[in-house]
């Protein structure tokens, strides 16, 4: 009996030991971690390196911040001629020195005379008997033929409106077609045409740029732009401007006291006006010509003196020059000379070493390490306010 009790006691002990072992083997596993234990730490993101057009504030670096200040490349066309007026070619950036407000600058950008030009040919097609439209078109096409094959040309005409006839291209057939589409009309929105060409058509184009402007210089219909805004834009840009001025004063005076007769289109007379005509005896006027007098705007001698001064200042501020053409022969010669000179410009650029107040004007002086030469270039530029 005692042996049975001892046997049962041993059996119970064995059972208890087995249950504890099983319980320990079934202990719940720890929940998995979202990352592996041996995963390498993520390296910090690198700090962006400022580009060539950015400056870094040293005090900001200590605070772990980078402040970027945009710097503006100042560039302009330069022409070098000898005492006989012949172009001096083959120069490099090492031959030039540039001074801004008497402080020498480091030349960062240079283009030789072999680089193609982008030219905008602007044609004033307001009414004039000095030139017929066919003569203007022929002279313009002859000008295009004298440019280099890689030069790109855009055609813009303007009267009371501004007409963009083709964008800058070296496809001669497209350019010729655009020139032939020009038509004589009324009004002269010269200021608005210059504004749109400089601030819309040329602003995104890099490289050497020029505007050849055929006009009498008298504006009569611009509303959104004026002479001062044009001169400011030219001072802030790197566009070379060649005005070709022709005189329409005699034409305007001959037409000044003549009535302008506008015959209404028959389609406009279906609904009779309610205002009676004088002496007709009817409650509406009979269909017929409408008589009016030409506007006084742009017809006075002082208007033409102002126009001449305006074109002179456009050329001076850009580094170009004015041509006068009152005959077809003079016009053709002006285009020929301009085409030749456009092949004779270098382009120089630098980042100013000193910050300047927006809207201020800076003086430019250029030296060349050649004797008996003259430098043709703009002498000032303005810091944009926008």
List the keywords.
single chain; alpha+beta; 4-stranded antiparallel sheet; 9 helices
Question: Would you kindly provide a brief summary of this structure?
Answer:
The chain has 386 residues and is of the alpha+beta class.
Structural topology:
Blueprint: H1 2-25, E1 54-56, H2 58-62, E2 68-70, E3 74-82, E4 96-100, E5 103-105, E6 107-111, E7 117-124, H3 133-146, E8 152-158, E9 162-169, H4 172-180, H5 190-201, E10 208-215, H6 227-236, E11 240-245, H7 249-256, E12 260-262, E13 290-292, H8 301-318, E14 323-324, H9 328-341, E15 346-350, E16 361-368, E17 373-376, E18 380-382
Helix pairs in contact: 3-4, 3-9, 5-6, 6-8
Strand-residue fraction? 15-25%
Class of secondary structure makeup = alpha+beta
In DSSP terms (H or I, runs of 4 or more residues), the helix count works out at: 9
Low-confidence parts: 16-69, 261-293
Helix proportion: 25-40%
Mean pLDDT, nearest integer?
A: 78
Overall geometry comes to globular
Give the spatial strand order of the biggest sheet: 9-8-7-10-11-14
**How many strands appear in the DSSP assignment?**
18
Q: Could you state the oligomeric state of the chains shown?
A: single chain
The end-to-end span amounts to 113 Å
User: What's the main sheet like?
Assistant: 6 strands, mixed
Give the C-alpha Rg. 38 Å
Taken in chain order, the helices and strands follow as HEHEEEEEEHEEHHEHEHEEHEHEEEE
């Amino acid at each position: 009996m005692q042996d049975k009790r001892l046997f049962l006691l041993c059996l119970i002990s064995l059972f208890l030991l087995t249950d504890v072992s099983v319980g320990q083997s079934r202990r719940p596993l720890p929940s998995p971690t979202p990352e592996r234990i041996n995963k390498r730490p993520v390296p910090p993101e690198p700090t962006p390196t400022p580009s060539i057009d950015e400056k870094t504030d040293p005090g900001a670096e200590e605070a772990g911040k980078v402040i970027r200040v945009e710097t503006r490349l100042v560039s302009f066309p330069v022409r070098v001629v000898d005492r006989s007026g012949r172009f001096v070619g083959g120069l490099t950036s090492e031959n030039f020195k540039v001074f801004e407000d008497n402080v020498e600058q480091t030349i960062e950008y240079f283009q030789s005379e072999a680089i193609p030009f982008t030219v905008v040919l602007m044609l004033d097609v307001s009414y004039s008997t000095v030139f017929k439209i066919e003569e203007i078109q022929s002279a313009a096409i002859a000008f295009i033929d004298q440019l280099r094959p890689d030069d790109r040309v855009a055609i813009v005409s303007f009267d009371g409106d501004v007409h963009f006839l083709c964008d800058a291209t070296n496809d001669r057939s497209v350019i010729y077609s655009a020139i032939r589409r020009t038509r004589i009309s009324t009004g002269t929105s010269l200021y608005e045409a210059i504004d749109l060409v400089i601030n819309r058509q040329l602003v995104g184009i890099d490289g050497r740029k020029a505007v050849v402007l055929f006009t009498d210089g008298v504006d009569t219909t611009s509303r959104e732009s004026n002479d001062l805004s044009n001169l400011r834009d030219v001072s802030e840009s790197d566009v070379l401007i060649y005005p070709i001025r022709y005189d329409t004063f005699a034409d305007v005076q001959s037409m000044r006291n003549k009535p302008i007769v506008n015959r209404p289109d028959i389609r406009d007379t279906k609904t009779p006006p309610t205002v009676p005509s004088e002496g007709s005896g009817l409650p509406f006027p009979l269909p017929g010509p409408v008589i009016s007098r030409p506007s006084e705007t742009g017809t006075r001698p002082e208007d033409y003196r102002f126009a001449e001064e305006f074109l002179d200042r456009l050329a001076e501020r850009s580094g170009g020059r004015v041509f006068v053409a009152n005959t077809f022969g003079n016009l053709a010669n002006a285009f020929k000379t301009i085409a030749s000179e456009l092949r004779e410009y270098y382009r120089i650029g630098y980042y100013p070493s000193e910050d300047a107040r927006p809207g201020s004007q800076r003086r430019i002086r250029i030296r060349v390490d050649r004797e008996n030469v003259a430098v043709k270039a703009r002498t000032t530029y303005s810091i944009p306010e926008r």
